[in-house]
């Protein structure tokens, strides 16, 4: 493979026989925050100055409104045009109302960022400008001289500027070309290739969803979106560190003496020739390993192997602990003078994707440390349309929400970004597996230059940066690009042009094999296991590999989730509105209706509102009241996904995973997310929390049992699950009509299916009867008819509220049958959070909700009719009686 293109100085790739290895943002070095003063570094060790101060923004060309002058506006780095203009009060928030359409001119303009910084010569002889993220098409000039050009948001760029710096004040300018006009022009130069958007996002290496998506806002911004540094060094620096981890023996709990081994591959860039030494030290959990290797003059790489006896294994959450080990790498002269240092954390574990054919087809099973793991996951998109605003704390909040929803995997979707180091560090710490897409989604991509060189350099950059993380378990070549070529008619429209297959079959797996050996790779999602890829075969075959399910939602109602038993469900979902407080913050329509202008702007799916209605009316009537409409659509979203998840988990081990579309949103919008654009949990979140629990009891229709219904006991826990499964058929008034008891003992990480007895599943009055199952603290219910056809009555509830410190305890007792009881606590206070929702109560049963609330919230509001909601509210004319 050839070297990458896009503006890196040739000295950045000292060995042209290897793949290009851009510098990593992981380097921990002497750090100078000020961009105005350059300090002398100690000895000869590399120093970094963050150039984050004194920036201004100017519009260079394009359709700037006549009423607006944009010249030398104060700017932030990292940042982008939209957020800088908002901070200056020049534009409104694009997330509100229909401001998105008012601001489309921004993406059609050229922009320039400018700053000055002081520098004076020191004892270092090399000085590099390092951009960790430029969005996207940029020309960089230092003191008027061209430094380089870039055209890839997903790369790190390093430029040798030792000949361009002057003693005293230096001027740095970064000029960005319009991403909209550039993408349009490149689409012509590269040749038309089909995609799913109104902009040719596939012609530019920029976050695809910045041009809008069926849940995303069209912003197409520009800016220096990740940090920028001036690095000064002498003699030699560390260009890249790649710890390749392996574990031998003892791969399960209780096994003795697992041996951990890490081979640390180090790439060096040299300023002058001479011998060097690479020292590596590993510490953690009572272990220490040290090794030094010599690197002769003229050599630019080294490998250091460290062994850790009795190593502690890293496990995904709910399977074990997440021990991490610290690694430090130093490069020195033979006399011991240090020049550079790298620090990072690693974990010891093995990962294998089992695709060995069996009686059902081709499985898609993640095996961690020798143990098959049922994947409980969600797809992850950028958490903000302006990703430079995402902090470590915000990532921590989202990952904590994933944990609270009982997830163990996040799939970083290919239409977004390669996330910041904080995201992967937090996943390492919390045991959240990461499935990482390369940045290709829903389109055909040219394999010609200059795009091909950009793709190669981008892949090398990000694989090298991320491969140290134990949470990362899979590299995936693309999202829907192989399936879509045939399913969407793209092959015919291409008329013989390249479309990216060579990336997915050859280039990307070769990068992974060289830079991250041992990590699993798949060409696309969905993927049915063909290698080489057979375009005549259905890439979305449920019996083979991973599957995406979008017939349900687009054309079919959610009970049809039960029609298919995939080996692994990598994408599926159902739309619903954001929480009420998020919705009303973002949309000021008066009156607010499902079709009012702001609601239409914040609904990006094709025929989205029609699909919401079509998917609701089979189950409950369509409400005319906006409050009820919001609750109905929220309930339906939660119920649809819960039905799907319980179905998929009930087919363990034939099905070994479900990755819901999607966990999060990037702005306030009606979407498939469980957590809305303001970070609030929707009812869907709580449905997933229930369906992803370690232990799940569910009642499922089964063609293979005589009575047609079965109770399935799913035990994804290290302990066996034993007890009496109590089955009852009840009238809605609580009268017990029939009962049965079955003793069960389900082994750890196993599933048991129990056929329901004939007497329990034979209703006399289907519209007023329910089957209730109980096993320890777990319960499940089966209703014989749709809610709108049932005898469900207005909910009668006895409610009391008590408070202690920052928590309100809402105790609810049902007088009659109440289905899917929920507390929409954000209506009381936007920062309030409840511990659970979607609870069924039989007559006389009680439950207590625990609500974390700010001190200025009114706890009495927790029993308001628009806060304490149930399914009963949607099928009866009377409101709830309390």
TrEMBL record:
* InterPro entries assigned: Beta-gal/glucu_dom_sf, Beta-mannosidase-like_N2, Beta-mannosidase_GH2, Galactose-bd-like_sf, GH, Ig-like_fold, Ig-like_GH2
Q: Where is this region: Disordered?
A: 1-24, 519-541
The record's annotation in Gene3D superfamilies points to: Galactose-binding domain-like, Glycosidases, Immunoglobulins
- Annotated Pfam families: Glyco_hydro_2, Glyco_hydro_2_N2
Keywords of the record? Glycosidase, Hydrolase
Query: For this protein, what reaction is catalysed?
Result: Hydrolysis of terminal, non-reducing beta-D-mannose residues in beta-D-mannosides
Any keyword Isomerase? no
Domain Glycoside hydrolase family 2 immunoglobulin-like beta-sandwich span(s) in chain numbering: 260-349
Instruction: Please list the residue ranges annotated as the Beta-mannosidase-like galactose-binding domain.
Output: 72-226
Q: Which GO terms describe its molecular function?
A: hydrolase activity
What EC number(s) has UniProt assigned to this enzyme?
3.2.1.25
Record family assignment: Belongs to the glycosyl hydrolase 2 family.
Quote the protein name from its UniProt record: beta-mannosidase
Source organism of the structure: Nocardiopsis coralli
């Amino acid at each position: 493979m050839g070297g990458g293109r896009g503006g890196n100085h040739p000295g950045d790739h000292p060995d042209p026989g290897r793949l290009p290895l851009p510098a990593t943002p992981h380097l921990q070095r002497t750090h100078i925050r000020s961009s105005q003063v350059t300090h002398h570094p100690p000895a000869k060790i590399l120093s970094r100055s963050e150039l984050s101060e004194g920036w201004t923004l100017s519009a260079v060309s394009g359709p700037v409104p006549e009423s607006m002058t944009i010249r030398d506006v104060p700017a932030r780095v990292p940042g982008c045009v939209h957020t800088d203009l908002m901070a200056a009060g020049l534009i409104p928030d694009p997330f509100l109302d229909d401001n998105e359409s008012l601001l489309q001119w921004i993406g059609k303009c050229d922009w320039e960022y400018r700053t000055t910084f002081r520098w004076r010569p020191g004892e270092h002889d090399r000085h590099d400008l390092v951009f960790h993220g430029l969005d996207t098409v940029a020309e960089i000039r230092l003191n008027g001289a061209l430094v380089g050009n870039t055209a890839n948001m997903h790369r790190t760029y390093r430029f040798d500027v030792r000949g361009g710096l002057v003693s005293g004040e230096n001027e740095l300018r970064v000029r960005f070309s319009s991403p909209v006009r550039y993408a349009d022009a490149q689409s012509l130069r590269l040749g038309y290739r089909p995609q799913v958007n109104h902009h040719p996002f596939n012609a530019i290496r920029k976050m695809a969803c910045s041009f809008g998506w069926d849940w995303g806002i069209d912003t197409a911004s520009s800016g220096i979106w990740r940090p920028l540094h001036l690095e000064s060094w002498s003699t030699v620096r560390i260009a890249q560190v790649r710890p390749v981890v392996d574990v031998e023996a003892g791969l399960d709990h209780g096994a003795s003496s697992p041996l951990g081994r890490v081979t640390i591959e180090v790439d060096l860039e040299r300023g002058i020739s001479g011998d060097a030494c690479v020292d590596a030290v590993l510490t953690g959990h009572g272990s220490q390993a040290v090794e030094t290797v010599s690197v002769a003059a003229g050599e630019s790489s080294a490998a250091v192997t460290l062994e850790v006896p009795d190593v502690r294994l890293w496990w995904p959450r709910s399977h074990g602990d997440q021990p991490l080990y610290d690694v430090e790498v130093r490069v020195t002269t033979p006399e011991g003078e240090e020049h550079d240092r790298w620090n990072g954390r690693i974990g010891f574990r093995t990962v294998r994707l089992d695709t060995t054919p069996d009686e059902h087809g081709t499985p898609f099973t993640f095996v961690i440390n020798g143990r098959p793991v049922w994947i409980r996951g969600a797809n992850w998109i950028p958490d903000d349309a302006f990703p430079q605003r995402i902090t470590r704390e915000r990532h921590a909040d989202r990952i904590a929400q994933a944990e609270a929803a009982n997830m163990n995997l996040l799939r970083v979707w290919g239409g977004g970004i390669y996330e910041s180091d904080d995201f992967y560090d937090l996943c390492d710490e919390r045991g959240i597996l990461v499935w990482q897409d390369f940045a290709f989604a829903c389109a055909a991509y040219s394999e010609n230059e200059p795009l091909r060189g950009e793709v190669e350099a981008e892949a090398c950059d990000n694989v090298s940066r991320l491969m140290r993380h134990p949470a990362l378990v899979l590299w995936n070549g693309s999202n829907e690009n192989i399936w879509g070529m045939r399913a969407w008619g793209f092959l015919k429209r291409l008329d013989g042009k390249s479309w990216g297959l060579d990336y997915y079959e050859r280039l990307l797996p070769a990068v992974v094999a060289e830079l991250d050996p041992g990590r699993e790779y798949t060409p696309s999602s969905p993927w049915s296991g063909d290698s080489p890829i057979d375009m005549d075969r259905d890439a979305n075959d449920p019996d083979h590999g991973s599957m995406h399910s979008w017939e349900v939602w687009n054309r079919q109602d959610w009970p049809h989730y039960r029609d298919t038993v995939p080996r692994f469900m990598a994408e599926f979902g159902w739309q619903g509105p954001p929480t009420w407080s998020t919705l009303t913050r973002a949309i000021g329509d008066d009156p607010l209706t499902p079709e009012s202008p702001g609601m239409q702007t914040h609904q990006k799916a094709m025929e989205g509102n029609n699909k919401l209605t079509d998917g609701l009316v089979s189950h409950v009537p369509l409400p005319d009241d906006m409050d009820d409409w919001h609750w109905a659509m929220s309930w339906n979203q939660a119920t649809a996904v819960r039905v799907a998840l319980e179905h998929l988990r009930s087919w363990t081990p034939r099905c070994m995973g479900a990755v819901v579309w999607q966990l999060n949103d990037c702005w306030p919008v009606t979407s498939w997310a469980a957590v809305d654009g303001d970070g609030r949990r929707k009812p869907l979140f709580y449905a997933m929390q229930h369906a992803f629990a370690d232990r799940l009891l569910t009642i499922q229709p089964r063609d293979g049992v005589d009575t047609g219904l079965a109770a399935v006991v799913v035990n994804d826990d290290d302990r066996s699950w034993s007890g009496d499964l109590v089955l009852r058929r009840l009238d809605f008034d609580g009268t017990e009509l029939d009962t049965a008891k079955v003793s069960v003992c389900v082994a750890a990480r196993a599933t048991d299916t129990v056929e329901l007895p004939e007497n329990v599943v034979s209703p006399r009055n289907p519209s007023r009867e329910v089957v209730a199952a109980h096993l320890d603290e777990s319960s499940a219910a089966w209703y014989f008819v749709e809610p709108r056809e049932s005898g469900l009555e207005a909910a009668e509830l006895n409610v009391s509220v008590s408070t202690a410190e920052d928590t309100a305890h809402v105790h609810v007792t049902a007088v009659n049958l109440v289905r899917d009881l929920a507390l929409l606590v954000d209506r009381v206070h936007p920062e309030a959070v409840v511990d659970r929702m979607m609870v069924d109560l039989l007559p006389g049963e009680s439950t207590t909700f625990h609500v974390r609330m700010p001190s200025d919230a009114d706890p009495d509001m927790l029993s308001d009719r628009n806060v304490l909601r149930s399914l009963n509210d949607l099928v009866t004319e009377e409101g709830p009686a309390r």
